[in-house]
Amino acid sequence: MPCFEDMFMKSRGKPIQYEGKTLVMGDDFPTHGATRFRLVFECCNGEWRQGVALRTNGSFCVFDRHISGNKGIVLWRDKVSDVVDFAVTAEAQVIDVKNVWDVGDGVMHSWHNGAAIIIEPVANGRRYRCNDGLADDDFDDIVFRLERFGN
Q1: What topology does CATH give the domain 4-10+20-148?
Q2: Which of 72, 75, 86, 99 is 20 to 30 A from residue 64's alpha carbon, by CA?
Q3: Domain residue limits, the chain
Q4: One digit per residue, pLDDT tens: the chain, 151 residues?
């Protein structure tokens, strides 16, 4: 099975091509001036605990809590509902998006071994088909959408 980590190391973290697909390590999701967002979990088929990590240059408001964008937020699939609405402050220009996983050791893992993401445009946002650290190429360990839905 492919080790996308080696491919990303050769590309110095830039997007890579694999079987006709563009793969990335993470994404800079543009806010386009929006301040309200929705993350929708579509499926989760990974062997390990799966989640999404978000960061921004502003701050987040999620679950009635204000959190520094530099600190970021992690939404673990087993701890939240299928749909999570959140807001960012107006100065946020992009939201850094990456998938994360926990193999059972309590450590948040990302960007290594088999990890890679396919990004697809959707109305008002993007769909992320993610591979975790297990070296396979099914890109269904966690699939989610990030959408802008107002100011």
Answers
A1: Jelly Rolls (2.60.120)
A2: 99
A3: 4-10+20-148
A4: 778 999 999 999 999 999 999 999 999 999 999 999 999 999 999 899 999 999 999 899 999 999 998 899 999 999 999 999 999 998 989 999 999 999 999 999 998 888 999 999 999 999 999 999 888 899 999 999 999 987 6
